[in-house]
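User: Hi! I'm working on a homework problem where we have to compare a predicted structure to a textbook description. Could you give me the structure for the chain below?
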Amino acid sequence: MLPDMTCGEKIKRIRKFRGLTQKELGILAGLGEQNANIRIAQYEADSRLPRRDLLNRIAQALNVNPINFYSHVSGCAEDIMQTLFWLEESNPGSVNLFQMMPNPGKVNASQDTAVRYNDTDDWPAEPPVGVYFHFSFATGFMKEWLLRQQELRSGKITRDEYFEWKINWPYTCDDGKESKYYIPWQKNED
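Assistant: Happy to help. Predicted structure tokens:
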């Protein structure tokens, strides 16, 4: 299993996604022009960790939500979603969402919690383990993420749009389109 992405690896991944050099990012984040590239290189290599105020400036320069680099409350729904988003980035295909459907007429019939699947070459060699949230806030987040995965697989959105949605989440959520904090993430979004 691959380790979680470090703060430096996330900065590098987003910087490259934005098409910036280390020097350009450093200058945008307010570092001196003379050593901007060196400082960003040190952060990306995890040999130095930027202070929180600098992480905020880096996030602003990269046009991303700063929770990509840290969370305010460990274990909060936003922290869990970011952890899962970055797990998927560092291990493509590792997070596969599916919609569960009720089994009509089987109310309190058993304690069986297994979700059945048809064993095909599309499934991993070991049966996967599923998780569901009995928390409407998190369930709503997961449903929208499932929708984004489905849109990506069907070609309705691009890989870049999908990544943009994740790195600015929750400001890209569908239910926030009327909010002044909403960040458009689709190239052809009105």
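For your comparison, note the following. The first helix runs from residue 7 to 18. The mean pLDDT is 85. Good luck with the assignment!
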